[in-house]
Design brief:
single chain; alpha+beta; five-stranded mixed beta sheet; two-stranded antiparallel ribbon; 7 strands
């Protein structure tokens, strides 16, 4: 019985550590966006969304590495591995005057993606509704072992 209790406590502690690492990354990314978007009031949406890897088509690709079709296939295969259904996360950053919604993905390796969407005065609409016929900015945060942001890349996405 003692061993079951110890295993249970170890499981809870390990889940808390993993959750804490992800929370540290979200906090660091939000701090970065606070500086980056000083004059653009935003709110962080309480739902994690999957941001497709194909958004990074022109960013991560090395020239002449492989042809476009094979590279897109590779990115789509990553989407198949990492894709998930939207999940609730208890972010505590909301702003009734927000003109932009920020959607976070789950961390993948040492990356975290965030998508900034102009909510066009409809902050509570769904992401799919807000991105329709809209241009968004996707941020890719790269972290070191101490969960500090070491680089940020951006990419514009056009939805139609």
């Amino acid at each position: 019985m003692k061993s079951v209790l110890i295993l249970f406590l170890l499981l809870i502690c390990s889940c808390a550590v993993v959750h804490s690492v992800a929370d540290d990354r979200y906090t660091a990314a939000i701090s970065y966006l606070n500086e980056e978007m000083k004059d653009k009031p935003f709110q962080v949406v309480d739902t994690l969304v999957y941001i497709p890897q194909t958004a990074w088509f022109n960013i991560n690709r090395k020239p002449d590495s492989i042809n476009d079709i094979d590279y897109i296939d590779h990115l789509e295969s990553l989407d198949d591995v990492y894709n998930f259904k939207n999940e609730y996360h208890s972010f505590k950053k909301s702003n009734s005057l927000a003109k932009f919604n920020v959607y976070f993905s789950k961390p993948i390796d040492n990356y975290l993606d965030a998508e900034v969407v102009n909510n066009r005065g409809r902050a509570n609409d769904s992401r799919s509704s807000l991105t329709m016929f809209n241009t968004t900015t996707v941020y890719r945060f790269t972290f070191n072992d101490r969960n500090e942001v070491i680089s940020v890349k951006t990419q514009k996405l056009i939805y139609n």
